[in-house]
Predict the 3D structure of the following.
Amino acid sequence: MNNTIYMDNHATTPIAPEVLTAMMPYLTTHFGNASSTHPFGIAAKDVVDKARYQVAELLGCSAEEIIFTSGATESDNLAIRGIAYACREKGNHIITSTAEHHAILDTCHALAAEGFKTTYLPVDPYGRVSPDDVEAAITPKTVLMSFMYANNEVGTINPIVDIATVAAKHGVLFHSDAVQGIGQLTSNMEMLGLDLASLTAHKIYGPKGIGALYIRRNCSQPHSLFYGGGQEEGVRPGTLNVPGIVGLGAACELSKKYTEMGKSRVVTLRDTLHQKLGTCLDDIHLNGHPEQRLPGNLNLCFAGVQSHALLMGLKSVAVSTGSACDSESVKASHVLVAMGVPNELALTAVRFGLGRYNTAEEVDIVADEVVKVVNRLRALAPEW
Ligand SMILES: Cc1ncc(COP(=O)(O)O)c(C=O)c1O
């Protein structure tokens, strides 16, 4: 693994050294339960309070609007199911899109099986939802809409502010799976106009297994999905994961300090990689929006080369065929299918996810290796 260049930062990011340092005492000597009233517990509660504040600082909200969870899958479930159950008297209709993460799609499927009505809006060829489509889909029974901030496969950024305007006009709650956008893009909840938002630490150089749900003050409280000790205002009971929460807080603080210069460095690396590949290889296609895209995202189809064969051929590069959860599957990505990419081409897609720690030297090595392997595989394909 030591010689493998990591370019899969949409799947997960390495833990930043600063984050690990912040977490260490809470994995070792400072092991108290944040609900205990003795000094061990008080010390734990103090750092949980600090971390809640650090998350709130990044989101431009108040600490009381943050609920800690085990990650974005749980936050998405809590937002969608919790709000659906809480607003049942008012209506039973939820709107989302066909390009969402499975944490949203499968939650909506499960609610549909329970009798809720669900609408899956199409996306344009770049993967964006149209605010006009959103408005047209609203009915008097609509209680919630959920659209991701930025797509985890193709990096496309949704017009969140415009959708939020539509949601507010019709008094419908707006949740966003903001996992990929937070820390990379504008992360201020007020400016985005969101009522609820999911985030997770392991996409912003924090640990796995910890995340949060932002719930705007005065927004309907989601029903808890668990029964237990009443932690997190009873919305998410369970002993708090203190080291994880400290890690999430530290990762948020680090993200807040992450400069525009740092982001544009990643954009330059990504564009250099794209340009090098485009210069040396014919018939490669960019998936996702050319500009409205996450800084580190480069999702390309290499016509004639099955993405799994390419991944197997890349010996010193860690990239992905799309969403990590689907890496065992040979089905075309549901996101690319939703965008209208032909099935045969969609099966050739590879996602490069560049991050804070990638370098220009790595881009050169990756470009050379990809070109070599694509040319070798194309030479073997009779139709190529
Ligand atoms: C857009 C999106 N939503 C949800 C998740 C799930 O996050 P977690 O791993 O924290 O459950 C991911 C991670 O793959 C993601 O990219």
Summary: The pocket of pyridoxal-5'-phosphate is lined by residues 71-73, 101, 103, 148, 152, 177, 179-180, 200, 211, 324 (CB under 6 Å). The chain is about 40% helix and 15% strand. Residues 323-327 have pLDDT under 50 and may be disordered.
